[in-house]
Amino acid sequence: MSAMRILLARVTILLWRTIGHWALRLRFPRDFSHIRVLLGLESPAQKAAYSTLSQDRDWRRHEKSGRVLAIIPFRDKWSLTSSCLRSLFSQDMDGMALHVALVDNGSVLGETRRGIAGVLSDLRPQGVTLQYLRYDIPFNYSRLNNLAVADCSSFGAKHVVFLNNDVDLKYPGTLLEMAGFLNATSGAGSVGCTLLYPSGRIQHLYIAVGCKIVGAHPFKGACFDAADPWILSPRPVGAATAALLMVPQDLFLKVGGFDERLPSCYQDVDLALKFQKEGRVNWVLPWITAIHHETQTRDPVHSWAEVRLMHDRWGTHLVDNPYNPDKLSRWSEPLAMALGEGAFPWHWLMP
């Protein structure tokens, strides 16, 4: 009976999404397949956020002699971490001090041990320091990052960048522009960027908070068009993925860091909502891109306990988030018009 209930729920959701999809297509017949359609759907909170942007859009100019802590959790699969580090060491420094925390969550392979020893002994770019941390604990993404922030406190970072080891930075000004943007933008809580699949298609543009189970990724799988008007400017969003996310360290500590009751999912959404509670805005710089070899380091595990925690904690602020336009359906990851259906019935899908 449970299987039949889940099947009926999926059919209902698919039908509603299809209706909403065509309703949106009728409203925006020419722009529907382009990211620029988002410009015509922005919420009042998103429109108000633009007033906090600096008139000087050369974000690098706002980052001088800053200190950035980059945290990279990993477990074996050293080739991914090595590639991530190479891309990180290729970043423009321009006076910025970068401290990289290699967070080893119980690696066991000889290849990994040799790789760690090699990178610790190799010469690094000027201004880059490296620290190896090993935590032999059950996987908990939130705890691993919280521990690393605490254990690197002597570095005195102004900003922390959370970086999955399966991400390769492709734009050499990524860290300078993200840090400069946080310095220049009043009330900024976090800043992310566009993540692409190795094929060049979009993996992550931003998180539509409160859409589907907890958050969704609009335009996932779409072609990336660097000339699209939405891509060309900073955009205020509900949340951005922690696969590559920069935050002010003092703000991160003020809100208690990542919630360790969210070991595998939704830590980034929860953190973004905590920043919103502090009156901060979460942003993405869409023109900055990186390659994300998604979920290469562990098997993805879907936890209904974490879903329930998010809904119990945030309630309507999750579903009716002011940075997710109320014109858009919460039932569909691809853009679809809201037709009065309300919140996504995630509990229908629980086993």
Low-pLDDT runs of 5+ residues are none
Largest sheet: 5 strands, mixed
CATH architecture: Alpha-Beta Complex
* Amount of helix: 25-40%
Question: Structural class of the helices, strands and pairings?
Answer: alpha/beta
The gross shape turns out to be globular
Instruction: Calculate the terminal CA-CA distance, rounded to whole Å.
Output: 11 Å
CATH third-level topology: Spore Coat Polysaccharide Biosynthesis Protein SpsA, Chain A
Overview of the molecule:
With 351 residues, the chain is an alpha/beta fold. The protein has a single domain (2-349), classed as Alpha-Beta Complex (Spore Coat Polysaccharide Biosynthesis Protein SpsA, Chain A), CATH 3.90.550. It is 31% helix and 19% strand. The chain has a five-stranded mixed beta sheet, with helices on both faces. Strands 5, 6, 7, 10 and 12 form a five-stranded mixed beta sheet that branches. Helix 4 (110-121) links the parallel strand 2 (97-104) and strand 3 (128-134). It is globular and about 60 Å long. The relative contact order is 0.18.
Blueprint of the fold:
Layout: H1 2-27, H2 44-49, E1 67-74, H3 78-89, E2 97-104, H4 110-121, E3 128-134, H5 141-151, E4 159-163, E5 167-169, H6 174-184, E6 188-196, E7 202-204, E8 208-209, E9 215-216, E10 235-237, E11 244-248, H7 249-254, H8 267-277, E12 281-292, H9 304-314, H10 316-319
Parallel strand pairs: 1-2, 1-4, 2-3, 6-12
Antiparallel strand pairs: 4-11, 5-12, 6-7, 8-9, 10-12
Task: Provide tags for this entry.
351 residues; alpha/beta; Spore Coat Polysaccharide Biosynthesis Protein SpsA, Chain A; five-stranded mixed β-sheet; 10 helices; 19% strand
